[in-house]
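Lab notebook: predicted structure, single chain.

Context: the supervisor wants predicted structures on file for every construct in the current expression panel, including those that have not yet been purified. This is the next one on the list. No modifications to the sequence; it matches the entry in the shared construct table.
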Amino acid sequence: MPDTNTEATLRQLLDANSYFALNGKGTTNHCPMALCALAGMGATVQQLKTFFDQWKHRYALAAPPLGRTIEAGNWRVCVGDASAFGACRAYFAGAIGNAGADAVLIDVLSELPFAPASQAFHAVIRLAYGLDAQHSGEIAAGLAALVCTNLPIETSDAEIAPAASVREGLASLAHAFGGVSFEGPSITARLRAATCDSSLTGRFPPLPAGPQVLDDMARVAIAAYMQTNDFTALHIVTGLHAVRRVLRRLPKAMAIERLPNVWAAVCASYLVIGAPALSWPETSVQLVPFDGDGHAPWRELLALAVADSDDHVIKMVYTCWREHQRDPSPLYRLAAERLVRRECA
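Prediction complete. Output recorded below exactly as produced.
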């Protein structure tokens, strides 16, 4: 956990981030997510300030004027309207101040189509990190991003048998669509191209049964990333970690009801990767102990990630560390090591 000085600095920088737009120069606003990950990995006050300053000067865009005011309970008019982000964030910040974060979270996710692939998973990641940091402004921003960039995935009502497992479900998509490609300058654009085609989404197998299906998705996601080195696969890994953090704040029945939406997001993202046949094992890779094997232990990997300026490296190493703590797998350490050593294709 961050110490008191680090927590105070994190909160100050997250407050300052409210002056930035939803997007950055050629990217989305990764700054608050990276700051939370850095703090979680033990960054110093100076390291947090250094990252914030370099992000501000290289990527930040000033938040535009709000332009509108959201009336009480009327956030629904902002669904899918990215231009309403600032006004929506301001509305949710006020609602959280009045009712508390959990009440607002449950209220919004009770009505909003749960679409974790929105903004290439960045909306749900921002929300999860805001919840973990207990920062009302970032919780509001994450909710506003989910609302204003909402990307629901409509799947078929046809009788399709559920996949026997996550891996078999993706294998069926690989068999049907292996090698598929989509045009677009960004992951979000390619996801939109994939999800607007009902001939694709209509073939998604229903969510596999079982109480550990989210765990299974996470295991397959890290295996897919290790096999493909794909940037979209990286976002599936970090996105699923965030989904878990958000769903745990919901009533259990409500969280379970949203798992099919998570599965649809994974299936759509898998198509964007090209639906490759998966050959990597999920957890069976064996590594010799740290000592003398040439592989960095976690403490070294975290230190390298904290010293990095790449927000995706920072978030992915943090995710791999936290997921490894939850469900140990050597794939997480391999993925983190490959990133900090710049061994990606």
